[in-house]
Design a protein that fits this description.
The complex is a heterodimer of chains A (177) and B (204). In chain A, 50% of the residues lie in helices and 25% in strands. With 177 residues, chain A is α+β, with helices and mostly antiparallel strands. Chain A has one domain. In chain A, helix 4 packs across helix 6. Classes of the chains: A alpha+beta (177), B alpha+beta (204). At the A-B interface, helix 1, helix 2, strand 5, helix 5 and helix 6 of A face strand 1, helix 5 and helix 6 of B.
Chain lengths: 177, 204
């Protein structure tokens, strides 16, 4: 295995590409996501996307924030060559929602909110609550892992260059005209 | 932010290796030997150690369980004394003035100033209690996975070094490359592509 700090920097782009692909899939192929998670009701973009454009010696950061914010500026940034740095997601499964921001370069979760659990009324409830919370955290984690695996299966195949990349580029260009 | 908070931040790790002998004994010993020690009555400015998840201010692993279901659940505590710069400056300036007057001098050497500052900080460290920061950990030993409830760089670095010191097991942070390389069963062909992959310029 490569040195951890070297590989962190060298492969940051893989996380950014994953988030861009995920945005594309959310907009165009929810069925793919449902085939990955049978209980999935929907995966939606939440209240924040951060993009960064470092091409041509620029260093622009574009943050789109707000519950009803339009994503047109984000699409425009993609067209100009920006990467998706992090994305806030709403993961709907069964009757419940999870919301979190996923960071592309580190795959860390920020502001992860899971469905409400039973209130803790005494010390005896703590153990049960930890088990329940851990289950709920792992559900979101497993979902992202499975989606990332699906991305890798495409990214690490010939289909990527020959087919998928073109579709993503088309989507970016059609969305912003 | 901890396990039971309404909103959490998570960094994930893979644990590289296993204990060769009794797991429970190894974890208990690692936690006890490296439990946080109080620095309020010493001049130490910062310390880090393990503490009990349910009683983070009473780091006693004899009284608090750290085993829940099939997981080890405990916390990293980092205690730091935050001495305001202006407070240091106030006492430092007073000391410098006094020393100049006592020695009938106009200037102090760099070394003298440094010694005065160190003395001031040490004295203040005895008076100012350390602020504790607590970060929870869920260790899924069987699956070699850890959920650490913080994304702060300093807290993650402290976790990685204290974990190795305590258990002689290395933590590997999970990010796009390590996820692909370690967590998934990639075929040899996929591994080859991953090795030589570069940005595809999906955008632009």
């Amino acid at each position: 295995m490569l040195d951890v700090s070297v590989s962190y920097n060298k492969y940051k782009f893989l996380g950014y590409e994953f988030l861009t692909w995920l945005w594309f899939i959310i907009e165009n192929d929810q069925k793919k996501l449902q085939s990955i998670d049978k209980e999935l009701v929907a995966l939606e973009i939440g209240n924040k996307i951060t993009l960064e454009n470092s091409s041509n010696n620029k260093n622009e950061t574009i943050v789109i924030k707000g519950d009803d914010a339009g994503l047109e500026e984000g699409m425009l940034s993609l067209k100009k060559g920006a990467d998706v740095k992090d994305i806030n997601l709403v993961y709907k499964s069964g009757d419940f929602n999870w919301q979190f921001t996923l960071k592309g370069e580190s795959f860390s979760f920020e502001g992860l909110k899971v469905p409400e659990t039973a209130p803790i009324e005494s010390e005896k409830d703590i153990e049960g609550s930890v088990i329940e919370k851990n289950f709920l955290y792992n559900k979101a984690i497993k979902f992202i892992d499975d989606v990332y695996m699906a991305f890798l299966n495409e990214r690490l195949s010939e289909k990527w260059e020959n087919n998928i990349l073109n579709k993503i580029k088309q989507w970016i260009n059609i969305e912003y005209k | 932010m901890g396990i039971l908070s309404s909103s959490v931040s998570i960094t994930r790790y893979r644990v590289d290796g296993i204990f060769e002998k009794n797991v429970m004994e190894a974890v208990t010993n690692g936690l006890k030997k490296n439990a946080i020690r109080d620095i309020d009555s010493s001049i130490t400015e910062k310390t880090a150690g393990w503490t009990a998840f349910e009683n983070p201010y009473i780091p006693d692993f004899n009284k608090s369980s750290f085993s829940i279901d099939t997981y080890f659940v405990f916390s990293l505590r980092i205690d730091k004394k935050n001495i305001p710069v202006k407070v240091v400056k106030k006492f430092y300036t007073a000391e410098v003035v006094k020393k100049l007057k006592d020695n009938e001098k106009n200037n102090l050497s760099r070394n003298e100033k440094k010694m005065i500052k160190e003395r001031v900080v040490s004295r203040l460290s005895l008076k100012i209690p350390a602020t504790p920061n607590i970060y929870d950990i869920i260790w899924d030993y069987e699956n070699k996975k850890i959920i650490f409830f913080s994304n702060l760089k300093a807290a993650n670095e402290e976790l990685e070094s204290l974990f190795f010191k305590s258990f002689q097991l290395k933590l590997i942070r999970l990010f796009p490359y390590t996820m692909a390389d370690l967590e998934f069963n990639l075929s040899e062909k996929q591994k080859d592509i991953l090795k030589n992959i570069s940005t595809s310029g999906a955008t632009g």
